[in-house]
Amino acid sequence: MKSKEHILIVGAGLCGSLLALRLAQRGYTITLTEKRPDLRKVTQDAGRSINLALSDRGLKGLRLAGVEEAAKKLCIPMNGRMIHPDGGTPFLSPYSGRKNEYINSISRPGLNQLLLDALDEMPNVAMRFNLGCEQVELERAVAHFKNYETGKNEMLSADLIIGTDGAGSAVRKSMFDHKKFLFSFSQQWLTHGYKELEIPATSDGSFRTYKNALHIWPRGEDMLIALPNLDGSFTVTLFLPYDHSDYSFETMDSREKVLSYFKKEFPDALELMPDLAEEFFQNPTGTLGTIKCTPWHCYGKVLLMGDAAHAIVPFYGQGMNASFEDVVVFDEILDKFEGDWNTVFYEYEKARKKDTDAIADLALDNFHEMKEHTANALFQQKRKLEIAFENELSHAYSSKYSLVTFNEDLPYSEAMKRGRAQDKAILNLLDDGKLPEAMALEEKLKKVQQATQDILHDDIVAKNA
Amino acid sequence: MKSKEHILIVGAGLCGSLLALRLAQRGYTITLTEKRPDLRKVTQDAGRSINLALSDRGLKGLRLAGVEEAAKKLCIPMNGRMIHPDGGTPFLSPYSGRKNEYINSISRPGLNQLLLDALDEMPNVAMRFNLGCEQVELERAVAHFKNYETGKNEMLSADLIIGTDGAGSAVRKSMFDHKKFLFSFSQQWLTHGYKELEIPATSDGSFRTYKNALHIWPRGEDMLIALPNLDGSFTVTLFLPYDHSDYSFETMDSREKVLSYFKKEFPDALELMPDLAEEFFQNPTGTLGTIKCTPWHCYGKVLLMGDAAHAIVPFYGQGMNASFEDVVVFDEILDKFEGDWNTVFYEYEKARKKDTDAIADLALDNFHEMKEHTANALFQQKRKLEIAFENELSHAYSSKYSLVTFNEDLPYSEAMKRGRAQDKAILNLLDDGKLPEAMALEEKLKKVQQATQDILHDDIVAKNA
């Protein structure tokens, strides 16, 4: 029997590490490279997305590689959004009416470390840090690196190369620059950037505000959010336009302006953030972009996965989850076509791309939902009704949020189609006064289901004719 | 009074030439560069989109610069699509039920020559051919060129640079590579390419098939079209997948295969194309792409216009028309903000981008409509009804096609929104049997208008909540 291939995985972030672990478990020889130092040996940069939302699709990926239970120990459940309205009293808007449906706040470096530790146990995995990929010879599966420790250039070759080197992927750039095939590509930047800030723990290590929620301060064009950390702190993120707005990163050029802005817009948060002004000017302003491309592969030699293939904005909390789901889908395709790499790569993209396109679009939808709509009366009526459906008629209804977040066996593209139709149905029924208070919940659900079917049907007729 | 600026326009194709003419008429000093030789002094390449559809938006642009009447002399009116069904009899599907609404087939080099001749008359215009732009220093408005006659590098500076250098724009590439601001960019290639072929004129210079139509042979995945030329020939274009299809450019690798494919799929066209097999292998296979980007401008110094800012696929016949409309919109913005270039560029993009995005999406819609739907029964019922509306109730209805093509004062984005809603309304009313044959035409129109309003209203409620 032919021995299994040597696979070079470029990028040891969350996706690359999980992929390396799973492929090592399948018996491949793995070289895993990473441009940064081993994160277990250095302190972390401040202000770079240090916690993330982990939910059912991500957990399914971790389960496949046998590390779900270990990861769960790093999790803080978040049962809903704690909305802090402008001038009003905060209220909890649950993510689902079902008790077992919640998302988790998890430390990015903590989870990454867990995966690297698991890789240490695999005899068929070699890990190389401080090795920055600069270019890939696609037809030969040869990658060129800069070794940041020695300052020298290095070259690694393998049977296959998988680029999991994130939104700024060097492997993808080699495909973009290659010109021997048509490479469709898009990078779409939001006109908003982000700044990471902190609500520190109290001196005894406890939380300064409600722990088990994702806090949101929606303000129309700008928005503040906060996710809890195991040490009692919250990582806070401000989303703000770069320019052309009353408040923007361009105009926020002094301590006084930052403090008076927070005092006006987020006074309850300001009280919890003693170091706000220092952090604001110390931490970098991050960009928010969506990247799509196709093909994800070439020559049966090179493949892109995770953010390298499909970077999304963070507003659905699905970036990491989508990347872990990539590994699940790739594993299923391997079960069918293992060994025939051209077919594996082609079928993987065919099975997967419509879904990563969908979650990219859903994440952009959610940007608007979070900063504007969560404060909108009709939107809140919809959420109230959906929570009642999920609570009292729990087998018969899942909101768009639930379909995306808690239905890991439903593809994102299906969740998007059904979820958007449901939203449209409910909002219009409510707006038309067709779901009066007095109506029984079962009857309301029937009306919503019928209207949803009608919307889906009308779309299909228009599309197919 | 301050003298008017010196503007360097890179690219003397259709958009650059019309823009140069209009800005020269407004009193600017213009340098217009072009990488190709002066097309009035050389013979044309075969197989490169030698005719185009000119319609009302394009004519409005030519009118603004005083060259509409001259251009009309180069036009052949096309009143509709001549559909050649698979195995059936060809039939004419009019573009509109109104007699005065038709599109025109026009020679690209002929129209370009007309514009260059008009520029020759302007004392404030300098034209430089064989000068290929390689890079632009954006902050200083300095452009670097290769002179293809001397082989030497040249540098031109100006107060402003406008890049009208087409889909492969070097000016845009300088913005993409610049990295000092966020540049959103997308290039989307169709999995279909195209090949230009010819139906020659008869020996006495007359047309071998019906002259005043755009001929279409829709075949699902592939499609043939033909547009008439003044010399009695038709330019024929085959649209075909590159690969992964029963028939594709990949599999079409011999004369025999090409001929047997045409014999099976397009037998009536084959009879008119004596040199098919030679042309197929002599002419290049062209790519079909959509390019979008933002911002279109930087530093109040550099602006992109035409295909350089928004290249689209050719299926709505709107590429040139959209570029000429750019000149009209830019001229309107100049009327308001002339002299304040940062504002001119910002307001121009703000006014214009939603519309060029819309025509890009509409052109992709039409690709599917042309190759698949024109042969679909429900689609044909819809067209029949729309033609009746436009014919008998001509002031009360315009189809999506008419809104886009013949309503030059309605922005593309509005035409798209209203047109798509109308299409959806009609198709669903027909599919549900709600427009029975016996119903009076006025009543049918009322039902369509009401259903269209409902669709637009429901979309707005869903979007705003």
Question: What does this protein look like?
Answer:
The structure is a homodimer of 465-residue chains. Chain A is α/β, with parallel strands linked by helices and 465 residues long. The first copy, chain A, has three domains: 6-74 and 106-186 and 291-356, FAD/NAD(P)-binding domain (3-Layer(bba) Sandwich); 191-286, D-Amino Acid Oxidase, Chain A, domain 2 (2-Layer Sandwich); 376-464, no CATH class. Chain A is 41% helix and 23% strand. Chain A is built from 15 helices and 19 strands. In chain A, the strands form four sheets. A seven-stranded mixed β-sheet of chain A has the order 6-5-14-15-16-13-17. In chain A, strands 8-2-1-12-19-18 form a six-stranded mixed β-sheet, with helices on both faces. In chain A, strands 3-7-4 form a three-stranded antiparallel β-sheet. In chain A, a hairpin with a 4-residue loop joins strand 9 (131-137) and strand 10. The longest helix of chain A has 31 residues, at 341-371. Chain A binds chain B through residues 182-189, 242, 287, 289, 292, 373, 376, 378-379, 382, 420, 423-424, 427-428, 431, 458-459, 461-462, 464-465, and chain B through 182-189, 242, 287, 289, 292, 373, 376, 378-379, 382, 420, 423-424, 427-428, 431, 458-459, 461-462, 464-465. Strand 13 (184-199) of chain A pairs antiparallel with strand 13 of chain B, so a sheet runs across the interface.
